[in-house]
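User: I've been trying to design a sequence by hand for this structure and keep getting stuck. Would you show me what you'd pick, starting by listing the structure so we're on the same page?

Assistant: Good idea, let's start from the same input. This is the structure you sent:
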């Protein structure tokens, strides 16, 4: 097989780039252009459906739900009918944000916070497919948050989109405000929000293929391999359970092992305490689970109903490791213990 070596591919006008299948390759439309993680809603480490009465990450990775009242809203992964043509590319999943039964016209928001306010500057384009059950309008809002100790948050974009009850692709191009003169602190981010603030008390928002990219053109949705998308999500949330198992379930597969050592006043358990993917920050919220799914417990090997309460995590914790050891108030130096965990470093 012969090799072809060229310095550049010129277009008809003599330039250094050419159009291939309707697109001109540039830095902004190559791999990695979509700053949204899990924009096709394939990854759901916390479970394919979750509820909240306030705010939090309850289901689909990287997507945070919020409601202004104490009513219950549900975030869930929905499955497209194979072969459908309403959303291009025949994707497998879409997200549903359901406020049916809230009983009041409260503010409902689904959002993603993109790490580092400097991750995008200048002209950007947001594209997505959406529909609502009752054809409600939604507010698309983009914020620049400058982190702890940083400048005051800036509203970069805020416009109402006329959404119908059928799938439509929406494209929004705008300029992010300059960062000149801003102070950027720890944990800064760009927030992309889809909000409902109308008088409809009972409806839902369906959304698919969310993409935020540099430039003024909405390129086709970037399909990353599942393993790559999962690794991007795990920077912010990781679990020891198999991907199909909801944290807190009764499950043994994937459990980590630790071994006890008697201390002067308490027991320390040493073992495999490393993360698979380094976390966003040292400030990680860790929850331990026994084999039967009880939070704050670890289980004795071959005796899963015998558990110990975790009192603290010992030294050396950070972005790559849970800690040097797990400490409990009692234990059994003759037997190993097993545990599941979740690690949360979301913005």
């Amino acid at each position: 097989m012969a090799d072809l070596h060229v310095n550049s591919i010129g277009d008809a006008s003599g330039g250094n780039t050419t159009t291939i299948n309707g697109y001109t390759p540039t830095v902004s439309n190559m791999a990695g252009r979509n700053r949204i993680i899990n924009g096709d809603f394939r990854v759901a480490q916390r479970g394919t459906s979750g509820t909240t009465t306030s705010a939090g990450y309850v289901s689909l990775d990287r997507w945070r739900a919020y409601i202004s009242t104490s009513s219950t809203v549900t975030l869930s992964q929905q499955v497209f009918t194979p072969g459908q043509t309403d959303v291009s590319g025949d994707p497998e999943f879409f997200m549903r944000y359901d406020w049916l039964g809230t009983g009041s016209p409260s503010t409902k928001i689904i959002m993603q916070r993109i790490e580092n306010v400097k991750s995008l500057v200048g002209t950007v384009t947001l594209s997505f497919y959406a529909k609502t059950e009752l054809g409600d309008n939604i507010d698309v809002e983009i914020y620049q948050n400058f982190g702890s100790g940083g400048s005051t948050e800036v509203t970069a974009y805020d416009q109402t989109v006329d959404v119908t009850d059928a799938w439509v692709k929406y494209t929004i191009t705008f300029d992010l405000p300059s960062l000149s003169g801003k102070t950027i602190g720890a944990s800064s981010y760009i927030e992309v929000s889809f909000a409902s603030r109308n008088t409809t008390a009972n409806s839902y928002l369906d959304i698919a293929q969310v993409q935020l990219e540099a430039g003024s053109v909405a390129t086709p949705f970037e399909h990353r391999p599942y393993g790559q998308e999962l690794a991007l999500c795990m920077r912010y949330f990781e679990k020891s359970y198999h991907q199909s198992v909801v944290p807190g379930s009764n499950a043994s597969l994937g459990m980590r092992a630790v071994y006890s050592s008697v201390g002067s006043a308490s027991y320390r358990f040493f073992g495999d305490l490393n993360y698979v993917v380094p976390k966003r920050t040292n400030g990680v919220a860790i929850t331990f689970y026994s084999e039967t799914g009880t939070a704050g417990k670890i289980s004795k090997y071959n005796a899963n109903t015998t558990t110990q309460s975790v009192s603290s995590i010992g030294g050396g914790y950070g972005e790559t490791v849970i800690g040097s050891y797990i400490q409990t108030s009692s234990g059994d130096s003759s037997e190993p213990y097993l545990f599941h965990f979740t690690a949360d470093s979301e913005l």
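That's my pick for every position. To get oriented when you compare it with your attempt: The longest strand covers residues 303-314. Residues 256-344 form one domain.
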